[in-house]
Every structure is written in structure tokens, then in C-alpha cells.
Design goal:
Radius of gyration: 35 Å
Pfam family, one: P63C
Organism: Pseudosulfitobacter pseudonitzschiae
Number of domains: 2
InterPro entries: Phage_Mx8_p63_C (IPR018874)
Oligomer: single chain
Shape: elongated
Protein name: P63C domain protein
Structural class: alpha+beta
Distance between the termini: 104 Å
């Protein structure tokens, strides 16, 4: 290992000559431009909000956004504005102190430090950077669920008598904002303010439909057993016809007892995928459009449950069956008994 000299001798040359000696040169003798950083050294791309808006809490409007990964954020400036804090000179002096935490201005006052929990300190010292628009400036955002925790710091300091007179109004504002606000409510407020709730609802609907409904129908398979219709005939007192055609209520009851018990968006989607023609007939059976793993399994489970109720009902007594069905599946469903 080379010995480190105790003293470095001065260089007997002008500054320009030293620069010329160590700086890389192009063939034309001019200084080369600095080599760009490799891609893996470049900072990650700052996320852009997919929706933004202003939520209203206690008559105060606060800027908020939702990112593509569903992270809900409140802008640092929005938090300061809502609470009435300012970026004063004392804030910048504290940032320069050795060992000082890089806290946002709304919680940087020294007398608040004993009231800030460690988990909140971590969140505050690791703000989420984002852009409200693609061409907008980069800003810091506070996780929406951390906003109530920020307010509680001020509330606890106020209740403990730790605030200075010039801070009283901030403590009072924090208490005001906290009324009726919790971590669940803040997410709902942001989703409503930005319109993200419509996107979330649409995505949830698509997840249900993709789990239950096939993009293309399956080849015909017997999914509704003959025994189901046999029990319907027995309970409703219907007679078999020579042409083997059942009463018009049979199909209606199948729809009401089975398909309407699937999640809300499934039956409308099945009607859309498999519509009736001018004669009110469908080209395929609805169950041909159900997925095997979720949709068909739920259908078969519902069939088994209803068939058990039919078997438990006396013959020629649809009213008794209806009472059993209501007890098993609730009173919300009213269906035609098909007495004729």
C-alpha cells in the first residue's frame, strides 16, 4: 500500500494549466462534454397524478391527488394552507442545524417534537415526490392516511399547553379539522374530490365480471339438472305436457331463484352477451357464458341450495317454498309464484 505523504508540495503552475492537464480533451483540442450518467444511476421517473382535485374539510379546500398505484396524497403546501402554518425564517434556520430532522414546515417547530411518533417521523422524512400534471413541477406529498396523525400532534401539543401563543390558532384549527375525520374518511374524501371513486368502481366491476363471465361462450353443457325442474313441477303442481314444454314461469323462476342471486353486475352482463331475439328466445343458455372456476361453481352452489329447499317443500304448495326461500336468502327478493 502506497505511503500517504504528510505534506503535499504545491504545484508550480497556473490554474488553467492544471485544468488543461487533467481535463479530457477531444481531438480538436477542446474540452469534452461530461459523460452522461449510466441509466441505472439516473433518478427514477417522478409519478404523475392520474386524477387530482380539491377536498373540502371544515370549509378549507386542500389539493389532493391519486397516483397510478392508488396512493392518495395531499400536497405539502395544501397541508400548510389548511393548518395556517408558514415557511418562516425559523423553519429554514432549523433545517440548517446539525442533526436536525428534515421535517415539513407544518411540523418543524421544536416544541412539537415530543408529540411526533416515530412512525410519523419516518413518513415525514420520506415524502412522496409527484407531479400534478405531466408538465408540472415536482412537489412533495403527504400520504393521505398520515394527515389525521399530523393533526393529532397539534391537538396533543395544544391540550398539553406546549404551544406558544402564536401557535394557538394552529392547534385550534387542527382540533377543528379532526372532528369527524379519520383515516378511512380521508381516503373517501380524496376519491370523491378527484373522481377516482368512479375509476375504482369501474375496476371493481370489471374484476367481478372477469371472474364470472367468459369473453366467449362455452360449448353447450347440461348445467341445470333435470331434477331441478322435476322439483319445480312437484312443488308448483304443474303437469307435464306432451310436447315436454314447461310453463312459462319455469324459465322466469330459474332466472329469479338462481341467476339473480349472483353478484349484481353478472346477470345484466349475461343479458348483454346473450340477448333475446324478436321471439324472446336466446341463442344459448346463460350458464354457457359463465367461467368454470368461479361463475359456474357459484351457479352450481346456488342450484344445490335451492334444490334442497324445493325437496323440503310439500307438493302443490309454492307458498311454503317461498317462505323457506325467504328464510334462507332474505326478504329482499319478491318473485312471481307462478300459480297458473
Amino acid at each position: 500500500m502506497a505511503k500517504i505523504p504528510e505534506k503535499i508540495d504545491p504545484i508550480d503552475a497556473a490554474f488553467e494549466d492544471v485544468v488543461d492537464a487533467v481535463a479530457p480533451k477531444a481531438d480538436n483540442g477542446k474540452m469534452k462534454a461530461p459523460t452522461p450518467l449510466p441509466a441505472f444511476d439516473m433518478p427514477d421517473e417522478v409519478p404523475v397524478a392520474i386524477v387530482k382535485g380539491k377536498m373540502s374539510i371544515a370549509d378549507v379546500e386542500i389539493d389532493c391527488v391519486v397516483l397510478a398505484d392508488e396512493t392518495r396524497l395531499i400536497s405539502d403546501r395544501g397541508v400548510s394552507k389548511a393548518m395556517g402554518t408558514k415557511r418562516g425564517g425559523s423553519h429554514w434556520l432549523r433545517k440548517k442545524e446539525d442533526g436536525a430532522l428534515n421535517l415539513p414546515p407544518y411540523l418543524s417547530a421544536n416544541n412539537l417534537r415530543p408529540f411526533i411518533p416515530n412512525d410519523l417521523i419516518y413518513i415525514l422524512t420520506h415524502p412522496v415526490q409527484y407531479k400534478a400534471t405531466k408538465s408540472g413541477a415536482i412537489g412533495n406529498g403527504l400520504l393521505a392516511t398520515a394527515f389525521p396523525k399530523v393533526l393529532r400532534v397539534w391537538q396533543e401539543a395544544y391540550d398539553a399547553g406546549a404551544l406558544k401563543p402564536v401557535q394557538y390558532h394552529i392547534g385550534q384549527q387542527a382540533k377543528r379539522l379532526l372532528e369527524g375525520l379519520d383515516e378511512v374518511a380521508i381516503v373517501a374524501l380524496i376519491d370523491e374530490a378527484t373522481g377516482y371513486q368512479e375509476i375504482r368502481r369501474h375496476d371493481a366491476l370489471q374484476q367481478i365480471l372477469s371472474a364470472y363471465v367468459l369473453p366467449e361462450h362455452r360449448p353447450y353443457l347440461q348445467s341445470v339438472p333435470k331434477e331441478f325442474f322435476d322439483e319445480l313441477y312437484r312443488v308448483y303442481g304443474w303437469e307435464r305436457r306432451s310436447d315436454n314444454r314447461g310453463p312459462r314461469y319455469a324459465g322466469k323462476l330459474l332466472r329469479q331463484l338462481i341467476y339473480e342471486q349472483l353478484p349484481d353486475p353478472v346477470l345484466p352482463q349475461l343479458d348483454k352477451e346473450n340477448p333475446t331475439d324478436s321471439n324472446y328466445q336466446r341463442k344459448r343458455k346463460h350458464f354457457q357464458h359463465l367461467t368454470v372456476d368461479v361463475g359456474k361453481n357459484h351457479l352450481q352452489s346456488q342450484l344445490a341450495g335451492v334444490m334442497a329447499l324445493l325437496r323440503a317443500s310439500p307438493a302443490n304448495n309454492p307458498s311454503a317454498f317461498k317462505a323457506l326461500f325467504k328464510r334462507a336468502y332474505g326478504d329482499q327478493m319478491e318473485f312471481d309464484l307462478g300459480e297458473d
